[in-house]
Design brief:
With 50 residues, this protein is mainly α. The protein contains 1 helix and no strands. The protein is elongated.
Length: 50
């Protein structure tokens, strides 16, 4: 039972490491756009209302 857990943990670790390497070395074609917040939302800001 203990060796099965160890083998399973090694397999999961290998899968995660491979996917991280693949994702880190790939490019993305998505462009993120954050629209400007309306002026009415300034009253909820903790930074501006300090």
């Amino acid at each position: 039972m203990k060796s099965q857990k160890k083998t399973f943990a090694k397999a999961i670790k290998m899968v995660v490491e491979k996917s991280i390497i693949r994702d880190a070395n790939s490019t993305s074609c998505m462009i993120y756009h954050q629209p400007k917040a309306p002026a009415a939302l300034k009253r909820f800001s903790k930074i501006d209302n300090a």
